Amino acid sequence: MAPQLDIARSNPNAPALDGQETGGADAARPRRINVVGLTRAQLADELKALGLPEKQIRMRVNQLWNGIYNRGLKSFEGITSLSKELRAQLNERYEIARPEVVEELVSVDGTRKWLMRLAPEKPGMPGPEIETVYIPEEGRGTLCISSQVGCTLTCTFCHTGTQKLVRNLTPGEIVGQLLVARDSLNEWPESADQPRIRNSDDRMVTNIVMMGMGEPLYNFENVRDALNIVSDGEGLQLSKRRITLSTSGVVPEIPRAGEEIGCMLAISLHAPNDEVRNQLVPLNKKYPIEELLDACRQYPGLRNAQRITFEYVMLKDVNDSVEDAKALVRLLKGIPAKINLIPFNPWPGSPYECSDWAQIEKFADVVNRAGYASPVRTPRGRDIMAACGQLKSETVKKRASEKLKERKEAAEA
Ligand code: SAH
Ligand code: SF4
Asked: How sure is the predictor about 405, in pLDDT bands with cuts at 50, 70 and 90?
């Protein structure tokens, strides 16, 4: 599914396919290029390379776009606005592919988690896995999307941070997570006469948060291209105000995120001073709080109606005192902000405890009195390890436990 996307990205005309098609046996045939995640310009280049006349390209891109993103089709066959010949030609070289769903778990609170397998690095190897989470709430449904397999950063309270970076996700794999969620939630129109997804009022996925595995600003171009497809009026049609990108504070990329993506921003702050933040988010040593907040103040479109969310994980006796709360509100003074207090979600071997509920309430009181509304995020999907910071590839977990077993066996031998 995916490596061919890389070919498409570095060379949208995919010359690797040329001259290889007479090979006969299927195994010798080049893999098809996934069109999911190609930008409009890249898709147009592909169609040009197929020999379509210039004046048709725009219309054909729109027809394909409509089939893939508005109707959720998985093959070109159903895009009947394209001629039969063109559909066959497309089918030869391209595919409309999603990550493979390995497992779908549903929590007692309705939260869903999909374990998805991506294309392997090398043929014959198992593909890496990612997790995507859907959180239904009154009047909205939020999809939490991953941007990387693992993470290069090592925030000490985060499960993903214990997993090394395996690789960045391609735009197709990022957009593919939304396509899979819509497949599973039955959110596509039933027929071609009903060309749009539902009205925003009765949609299942109304919001997207880039808060799954990985640091989205360390995979900037791919995240940007994917989110621009997700928010495209003819694409997946989610307004940029309903898309939130969460970063641990990659300061140099924040202005670009504003200019080239223009979505809502969330900052994983987690501490009211550099001393504590250095321990929790080691990236703070490179980009300390003052620089981070300066970048926030300059974020385009920042105003009261479009505030930045500051996330703050509640860790017992680490960052949860009333003094910390006071320091936090002082720190954010003057920035149009929302504060989101996240009760710490434990994971096997995690070195912290969640703050006591009474302490979270005391902390929230200070925050509330400073004018920030209902800031505590209810933990969702803990029973299926789908809550914030609990995501980690199943294969890696298994591999780690297998290694442990092997080591034990070796020690016993
Ligand atoms: N890498 C990005 C986005 C993914 S993490 C970032 O760090 O912002 C999404 C959010 O979950 C972040 O605010 C992160 O700090 C928080 N988080 C990570 N581990 C957590 C845990 N164990 N409990 C609660 N929140 C956690
Ligand atoms: Fe990476 Fe975000 Fe986890 Fe930090 S909190 S390790 S940046 S995923």
From this structure: very low
- Higher-confidence residue of 193 and 162: namely 162
Q: Does domain 102-398 have CATH number 2.40.128.10?
A: no
- The answer to whether the CB of 223 falls within 8 A of the CB of 245 is yes
Boundaries of every domain in the chain: 18-95, 102-398
Would residue 158 show up in a list of annotated catalytic residues for this protein? Answer: no
Instruction: Please give the distance, rounded to the nearest whole angstrom, from the Cα atom of residue 226 to the centre of ligand 1.
Output: 21
pLDDT, position 391: 59
pLDDT greater than 90 at residue 281: yes
- Residues paired with 165 in a beta bridge: none
Q: In what order do the strands lie in the sheet with 100-106?
A: 100-106, 112-117, 129-137, 140-144, 207-210, 243-247, 264-268, 308-314, 337-343
Distance CA 336, CA 334 (A): 6
**Confidence bin at 335 (pLDDT 50/70/90):** very high
Q: Given ligand 1 and candidates 156, 162, 311, which is best to mutate, with the most ligand atoms within 8 Å of its CB?
A: 311
Give the ligand at the shortest distance from the Cα of 314. Answer: 1
Q: Distance from the CA of 372 to the center of ligand 2, in angstroms?
A: 25
| Active-site annotation holder among 46, 131, 173, 253 | 131
Q: Is the pLDDT of residue 229 over 70?
A: yes
- CA-nearest residue, atom 9 of ligand 1: 211
- Mean pLDDT value of segment 334-346: 94
What distance in angstroms lies between residue 389's CA and the mean position of ligand 2's atoms?
Answer: 8
Q: Which residues line ligand 2 (CB under 6 A)?
A: 151, 153-155, 158, 160-161, 214-215, 248, 268
Q: Which ligand is nearest to the CA of 244?
A: 1
Name which residue leads in pLDDT, 388 or 243: 243
Lowest mean pLDDT among 111-125, 267-281, 287-301: 111-125
The CATH number assigned to the domain with range 18-95 reads 1.10.150.530
**Ligand 1 pocket residues where CB is under 6 Å:** 155, 157-158, 211, 215, 246-248, 268, 311, 313, 342, 344-345, 388-389
> Who's near 232: CB < 8 A, 6+ residues apart?
40, 65, 69
Distance CA(159)–CA(266), nearest Å, equals 19
Q: Which residues contact 275 (CB under 8 A, 6 or more apart)?
A: none
Q: Is 388 part of the annotated catalytic residue set?
A: yes
